[in-house]
Amino acid sequence: MERGKFIVFEGMDGGGKGTQVDLLRQRIGSKSNVVFTKEHNRQGVAGELVERVVTRQETRDFSPRALQQLFIADRVDHWDRVIRPALEAGKLVVSDRYWPSTVAYGPIDQREVLVGINRQVVGDPDLAILVDVPVEVAMARMNLRGEPQTIFEKREKLKVVRQGYLWQVEKMPDMWLVVNGDRDPEVIAVEIWGEIKRREMV
Fold first, then answer.
1. Vertex 68: Cα angle to 67 and 70 (nearest 5)
2. pTM of the prediction?
3. If you write DSSP's letter for every residue of 169-183 in order, what string do you get?
4. 102 lies in a domain?
5. Of 124, 184, 134, 186, nearest in space to 162 by CA
């Protein structure tokens, strides 16, 4: 059986990534050969701890380097239990976040290392879609949401995160589609759908 395709949506918190995942889900519909998933994987043991740390429910100290390794542990579990079996069954897998998030949100001086570690333990996406917006746009959207902020949702941190994504686009251009997220969501969705069709992923 031919291996399925793997699409990943990436971007800063408040960038509109989740909206685009939802619009793609609506366009594709409920087909048995498509799997929608996300990271971190809250059903896994590691993912549950990640959730506690990033939402400040865990009050004990947790070093940034250890947190990145915890994200990777959760990803290995996600890959082994969800993503790889679906790809081997010939299905299209669409994930809201994947290893590029760990690279973008991780320490600047560890980007190369984090890319290497992730590629050793899990597979690459066939297409990574970066929904890119200026930091101020992302911050304004998050303020409108009125939801509790995670440890990453700070202006200076998001500037580094955006740079981390653009660094990956420069290093691995064939893997990426960058779309301007500061537009009407439906317009963005049409652009993304066009690229998916062009690559014959559906």
1. 65
2. 0.89
3. HHHSGGGEEEEE-SS
4. yes
5. 134
Instruction: Determine the Cα–Cα distance for residues 47 and 84; give it in Å rounded to an integer.
Output: 18
Q: What pLDDT, on a 0 to 100 scale, did the predictor assign at position 149? A: 62
* Tokens standing for residue 108: 């600047």
Domain that holds residue 102: 6-198
- Which residue type does 182 have? D
In a domain, 1, yes or no: no
The CA dihedral of 9, 66, 69, 127, to the nearest 10 degrees, is: 20
Residue 88 lies in a domain: yes
- Total domain count for the chain? 1
User: What is the rounded CA–CA span in Å between residue 21 and residue 61?
Assistant: 33
DSSP state of 110: G
What pLDDT is attached to residue 145? 76
User: Which contiguous run of DSSP H or E holds residue 26?
Assistant: helix 17-28
pLDDT tens for 60-118 read 777 777 788 888 889 999 999 999 999 999 999 999 999 999 999 988 999 999 999 99
Report the percent of the chain where pLDDT is more than 90: 68
